[in-house]
User: Fold this.
Amino acid sequence: MTGSPKKIALEEHYLPPDYLDYWAPSVAGLPPKAIETIQRRLLDFGEERLKSMDDTGIEIAVLSLAGPGVQCEPDTAVATRRAAESNDYLAKRMTEHPKRYRGFAHLAMQDPKGAADELERCVKDLGFCGALLNGQTHGHYLDEDMYSVFWERAAELNAPIYLHPADPFRTYHALEGQLQLRRPAWEWTVETGTHALRMIFNGTFERHPGATLVLGHMGETIPYQLWRFDSRAAFNASPTSRKEPPSFYARRNLKVTISGMCDLPPLECALSALGESSVMYAADYPFEEPEAASDFMDNADVSDTTREAVCWSNAAKVFGIE
Assistant:
């Protein structure tokens, strides 16, 4: 193909200035210069971000608050208030470039009913596309009964929920002291993939068939393992709330993006395992250099029809972007 196809990018982060204290621990240990650059880009909604989008063919960026945000806040009332404030802040910034920016809600999952109400406000009143959640909230995972009210509302609103990596409640013993394997190299993949599998195996999508979960990084290894999940689920005779094998829910309720995974074999696996309509584009700005994702998808050995679907039409349909 020639030229860069237009793109909708789905894992593009921002920060309100008063959220830096929530965010700083998540980048502890990075070189100070890298933190400075990332922070500058997170706070920017103007020239630098828009130039990066223009240079890489991103027509629309769906912006989400860089984690963990209020999900680490110990006071539920404070978390609820500040989540709403951050969503109002994003809505205001979106109006400065309404053709370029859309938004994901930031939610205080400490209060599932309150989070459902805020999701509804963001979708109906602020025009957001759904929500992005940063992993577990004080040790609670999204398959738990307490979140049924949230998933019911998300399905009613047709609001996809993007599950973004974040630190586990406790560091896995095998990863203690293994700094090169911590966080994005491997820990977050294990944590986020396990979180999604809890929902698949424990019947979240049986109970809420209209819910949509989005994962980055080509699905956190889940597409690669579907046969084995089905095989072991059939072998294990323990009671289950599922009527179908795990792969059924993965293919029906799961969407994935290419964020941070610019390699043809995992792309081919995700397309084959989940279906072409389930794979979408993301650059993971500013934590990854957007040129990497753009160059990869512009030149990947796939058909132009597939390229257009991944870069644009799948996200336009899933998130209702015209």
Observations:
- Residues 218 and 267 are 7 Å apart (CA to CA).
- The chain has a mean pLDDT of 96.
- The beta strands are 7-14, 58-65, 101-105, 130-134, 161-164, 213-215, 254-257, 279-280.
